[in-house]
Amino acid sequence: MSITPLMPVYPRCDFRPVKGEGAYLIGEDGSRALDFASGIAVNILGHGHPHLTRAIQQQAATLMHVSNMYGSPQGEALAQRLVDASFADTVFFTNSGAEAVECAIKTARRYHYVNGNPERTNIITFNNAFHGRTLGTISATNQEKMRDGFEPLLPGFAYAPFDDLEAARALVDEHTAGFLVEPIQGEGGIRPASQKFLAGLRAICDEHGLLLVLDEVQCGVARTGALYAHEHYGVTPDIVASAKGIGGGFPLGACLATEEAAKGMVFGTHGSTYGGNPLAMAAGSAVLDVILEDGFMDQVAATGERLRGALEQLIPNHDDLFDHVRGKGLMLGLKMKVESRPFVAHLRDNHGLLTVAAGDNVVRILPPLNIEQHHIDECIEKLSAGARDYEYEGKPMVKAPVAK
Ligand SMILES: *Cc1c(COP(=O)(O)O)cnc(C)c1O
């Protein structure tokens, strides 16, 4: 038998973390790495944050899980806090991002169904989108690498180029239920939607009675310096899928919706055994305690500006490798002129810096949101050293020093 006990769907690397301390991960062999990946935008408070850890420990000892058949003081409290802090009137808790997107899609279809328009089932999504790995959410992307061999997929999706408002408009017909879009594409390569695009989708929705569904699984929960990224655009969605950072490392997701958009989601239409259990609610609540504190979001925005500035200063010295920096807050992408995946591996293996590769040859830089200046300095040192000793095909033989 040659298959590994752990199903081999991930190309796992030699770094094998066994402990986390703030913005650092410690490997099985004792090596230390600066974690500017954060479990792909999950560990927003870093590793071992005392408030989050204590909340989970105490709740685990008090009451870990009960069925959603019972009243949930813990769920009601966290839902109320999310409602108070966002556009939403109601929240469904899930265990992952894909489940939050599934709930969003179901909510959108039910809305039209109860409105007497059961033919409005189709969701328009965008090229290079990532919405998760369930059958429903892979149907919502047209990326072949995620769909190959899993067909037949769910009908009811159409795909337009990202940030192309006219192409999106052209797909709207009498079967359209709404749009599903990431305000800032994550896996697709840290691509922010333009103001014109997001505001334009809202206007098309208003004109045709469609729903604007945002996938903020990666860009939400303070990552960009606002609780949700759509706040920067001044665009109000109908439904938002949230996850990743929302549990700070505990598996938690949420589907947030307005009262109007959620009007079809009545008793019996949806459910989850674990979704919103007391342990998950304790984690989510501890994360909100920290990120909703006065000044936290401003701090994320300011830290993001400093990190971005430092990255931009690095580019002229390595302009054979780096093109530009994009993104918002602490969701940053370094666009490379060469393949980003092997460079990310080089930074990890030879310089103890963890980042994440993304589409379009981007290095994703997603640190914990509570990093300090010395973490930024260390990241820049490692990135700079990594760029200097990176061997790749087509590397210039002698690099002339750049005058400052
Ligand atoms: C990660 C991600 C998902 C899927 O989340 P899972 O928790 O892996 O199911 C969905 N949408 C976006 C934008 C993501 O980044």
Q: Could you describe the 3D structure shown?
A:
The mean pLDDT is 97. This protein is of the alpha/beta class. It folds into two domains: 128 residues, Alpha-Beta Complex (Aspartate Aminotransferase, domain 1); 229 residues, 3-Layer(aba) Sandwich (Aspartate Aminotransferase, domain 2). A seven-stranded mixed β-sheet has the order 4-12-11-10-7-5-6, with helices on both faces. Strands 1-2-3-15 form a four-stranded mixed β-sheet. 35% of the residues lie in helices and 18% in strands. The protein is globular and about 70 Å long. The longest helix has 19 residues. It is built from 13 helices and 17 strands. It binds pyridoxal-5'-phosphate.
Summarize it.
It is built from 13 helices and 17 strands.
Tag the structure with descriptive keywords:
404 residues; alpha/beta; Aspartate Aminotransferase, domain 2; 2 domains; 13 helices; 17 strands
Shape: globular
Question: How many angstroms does the end-to-end distance come to?
Answer: 59 Å
Q: Residue ranges: pLDDT <50 for 5 or more in a row?
A: none
Estimate what percentage of residues fall within beta strands: 15-25%
Largest sheet properties: 7 strands, mixed
CATH class of the largest domain: Alpha Beta
Strand order of the largest sheet: 4-12-11-10-7-5-6
Question: What is the CATH architecture term of the largest domain?
Answer: 3-Layer(aba) Sandwich
Q: Helical residue percent?
A: 25-40%
What Rg is obtained from the alpha carbons, in whole angstroms?
Answer: 22 Å
In the CATH hierarchy, what is the superfamily of the largest domain? Type I PLP-dependent aspartate aminotransferase-like (Major domain)
Number of strands: 17
Structural class: alpha/beta
Secondary-structure element order, as H and E? EEEHHHEHEHHEHEEEHEHEEHHEEHEEEH
How many distinct folded domains?
2
What is the CATH topology descriptor of the largest domain? Aspartate Aminotransferase, domain 2
Q: Count helical runs.
A: 13
Oligomer status:
single chain
Which molecules are bound besides the chains? pyridoxal-5'-phosphate
Mean of the pLDDT scores? 97
Binding site for pyridoxal 5'-phosphate: 97-98, 130, 215-218, 273
Pathway: Amino-acid biosynthesis; L-arginine biosynthesis; N(2)-acetyl-L-ornithine from L-glutamate: step 4/4
GO molecular function: identical protein binding; N2-acetyl-L-ornithine:2-oxoglutarate 5-aminotransferase activity; pyridoxal phosphate binding
Enzyme class: transferase
